Amino acid sequence: MRQNFDVKGGPQLGRNNLPRLRDAMKAQGLDGFYIPHEDEYQNEYLPACNDRLAWATGFTGSAGAAMVFQDMAAIFADGRYTLQVRDQTDPDLIEVHGLPEPGPFGWLEKQSLKGKTLGYDPRLMTPNDLATLEGAAKKAGAALKAVDDNPIDQAWDDRPPEPMAKTVPHSVEHAGQDATDKRAKIAAALREDGADAAVITSPASIAWAFNIRGGDVACSPLPLSRAILKSDGTADLFIDPRKTSDALRTHLGNQVRLRPMEELEPALAELGKQSVSLDPALASAWFFGKLEAAGAEIIRQPDPVLLPKACKNETEIKGTEAAHIRDGAALTRFLHWLDTEAQSGEVTEIDAALKLESFREDLGGLNDLSFETISGAGPHGALPHYRVSSASNLKLDRGTLYLVDSGGQYLDGTTDVTRTVPIGTPSADMKRHYTLVLQGHIALATVRFPEGTTGTHLDSLARYPLWQAGLDYDHGTGHGVGVYLGVHEGPQRIAKAWNSIALRPGMIVSNEPGFYREGQYGIRIENLQYVTPPTNIPGGERKMLGFRNLTWAPLARGLIDLDILSTDERAWVDAYHAEVLEKIGPLVEGEVADWLEAQCAPL
């Protein structure tokens, strides 16, 4: 079993730990302390030892922040976690506010804090966020103080140990490009930009650039490490020696010097009087401070690994396609089970999550889940990032909807797929809302667009049918996805919030519009798709990019209101189901095969 369903977080953590944190703050002369969700590596999913926000407040969502003062505390979470954050925190101790509005900095600037000192950990904040914090603190009248010892770390006496998973080579068979060649191209880009070196702080970028993988972060095969890539193609890789091996050293070769993490700070000092590329959106303020103190000329620019990593090569695309077809067979077996045995009304959310996990295990080659399965029955489906626990476990009651968002990590690809299915007979509203979401999904799946188009430009396509009905959803429509890397990957995304990164061939994004009726049900339909090269359209004047689907599993035809779909939309569903049957049909048998054929019959 790769996931457990223990109760995580909750109000008791805040009740127990806020007094201890305040004592540690007082000892450092701090009236307040800022706690971001991110850790030293700016990870979204954190090793247990770095989940400081959860320890202090009880909130376990993957995005958020808190401001803790001696006499009050405030926490900030976005629309995915509106209900969860209220369930997991004590309202008598912690005020709940939204992201992005007002957000911690917008809230801070409206406070009256003259004469107060607000602490922050520079290892956990990017310089961009720190600049915003400085401006907000100034408006509030507070003095800012960087701390060398995080008061949470001081107060957390039962803190879990740092993860020490082995770091292993990732073969060219799956990567599609030798790591030496990757770094040579990055080195050439650095020379073009006038940089002598780049400090790489993102574990995902390091994993890609060195063709290595690890296991330090749950559901993401990441090695917690740092690197300095030099303009001559050589590199220093900073990693705990306990994670290394002779096989890793052989794989890395003579151009890479393995160094213990303790040598990182001296190595930054050695970069004095050099031009160093550093990403202000990923690297913490600590790195900027150390390089500035060393006298380095800092070139503030995006991590040079981000775009090459985002634009998958032919091998990565083929591997991802293969992984999705295998994964689709497991998901199809699960959807059949949901449509038969799980219709009893006695199956629980945990039963369903474990059943799906078992189908993926049966495939062979599953290295991990790509995130903890979102298994939401009835009202829990209305919580976009719901995590079932033994305390919250509901039955899949008849007359409700069940939402399952899940994925797997395979050597050749990372999957992420959401399906919503009826348990018993759905209501007219359920069918109407499902069909509106499906229309938005189809619009984003079929769009053609010119070069230079960003995900922000496309986001409204997926929302349009809902908007016309006076409805919307409070999360992004699509995120980037790695190849045996993070299930959430930048720099591209599809969302209302502005994203300046143009979509390019090879980029993988999710397509996941949704609708959530609080206290009743949630609906989301998610496939992954990748950007295809620009091609001519008959009668057109400009070549257009498009999307090619990666995810293959039947839709809930019992939730589709045919009166709402247009002729073209019906044709898309039929064509999609025909391809599902073609790809997945040979991988299932017996009752499942018969069921799949019926599910994929023309509307």
Automatic annotation (TrEMBL):
Membrane-spanning parts: none
GO cellular component: cytoplasm
Coiled-coil ranges per UniProt: none
SUPFAM superfamilies on file: Creatinase/aminopeptidase (SSF55920), Creatinase/prolidase N-terminal domain (SSF53092)
Any one GO molecular-function label of the UniProt entry: metal ion binding
Domain of life from the UniProt record: Bacteria
Domain annotation Peptidase M24: ranges: 321-532
Annotated Peptidase M24 C-terminal domain residues: 543-603
Alphabetical keyword list: Aminopeptidase, Hydrolase, Metal-binding, Protease
Alphabetical list of InterPro entries matching this protein: Creatin/AminoP/Spt16_N, Creatinase/aminopeptidase-like, Creatinase_N, Pept_M24, Pept_M24B, Peptidase_M24_C, X-Pro_aminopeptidase_P
CDD domains for this protein: APP
Gene3D superfamilies: Creatinase/methionine aminopeptidase superfamily (3.90.230.10), Creatinase/prolidase N-terminal domain (3.40.350.10)
Domain Creatinase N-terminal residues, every copy: 19-139
Family classification: Belongs to the peptidase M24B family.
Protein name: Aminopeptidase P family protein
Organism: Henriciella mobilis
